[in-house]
Prior knowledge:
By secondary structure, the chain is an alpha/beta fold. It is built from eight helices and seven strands. The chain has a seven-stranded parallel β-sheet with strand order 3-2-1-4-5-6-7, with helices on both faces. The longest helix is centred in the middle third of the chain and has 29 residues, at 94-122. It is globular and about 50 Å long. The termini are far apart.
Amino acid sequence: MINLTSKKILVTGAASGIGCAVAQTCAKAGATVIATDRIDPSESTGLPAPHQHLVLDVTDAAKVESKIAKLGPLDGLVNAAGITGAGPVHTVELDVWRKVLEVNLTGAMLVSKQVITAMLESGRAGAIVNIASVYGMTGGPGNTPYNVSKSGVLHLTRCMAADYGAANIRVNVVSPGYIETPMTTMLDAEEMHEFRERFVAMHLLKRPGKPEEVAAAICFLLSDAASYITGANLAVDGGFTAAHLPI
Length: 247
Ligand SMILES: NC(=O)c1ccc[n+]([C@@H]2O[C@H](COP(=O)([O-])OP(=O)(O)OC[C@H]3O[C@@H](n4cnc5c(N)ncnc54)[C@H](O)[C@@H]3O)[C@@H](O)[C@H]2O)c1
């Protein structure tokens, strides 16, 4: 069982899916959680005080700065806020491209900037976990803005790990495969059935993952059990990236 007792951990994207599971798992492990999302996450997490809930759009630099400054020093951050954005380059809409990069990549950078500033000022050790995707590691058809944003998150993680290791701030990333959350419910549609079957089959464990399975890996990386791990990319993908299966 992971122990996060006496750690104060901020989670973005906590109103749904993986972020919500992270908030709940961190709380179960003893952390005090500040659950944030662009919409009020309190009903989704169901966490009572002393856990806090905050409406925070990760792309709003001024609000990110002012709201996080009020929280005082934090021990951990999970950047889980994310959106999808589809299209090959010749049809992609510029607004979609910009929005996906703004939320998935710039948003993670903006929140990290404020949390790291507070960690450096307090002299406390810290742990940050970003969420990329298997499609940050490999190319994939039809989802260029999303996939590119996630490869950016992988490299953002490595660069932050390099900059803050000496201050004992560890920065890691998890790369999930297909996880059943509201982000992926479109795969449940009748017309997506065949694609979904093939997609599931590309995962060695032959099933989609659950948000709690990603949250468990994230909580490990936040904890002192991962005290010598920084700059790492942990695939939580049911084996998706371990082998190229014939389709
Ligand atoms: N579900 C999957 O299969 C999968 C696979 C790989 C990676 N991921 C990544 O995991 C993370 C969580 O995804 P999920 O599947 O739980 O999706 P989700 O849609 O269930 O949750 C995403 C959350 O992010 C919030 N959000 C979106 N824009 C925001 C903004 N500007 N500011 C603050 N919050 C914002 C949403 O309100 C939502 O609550 C995302 O980064 C996603 O890209 C998911």
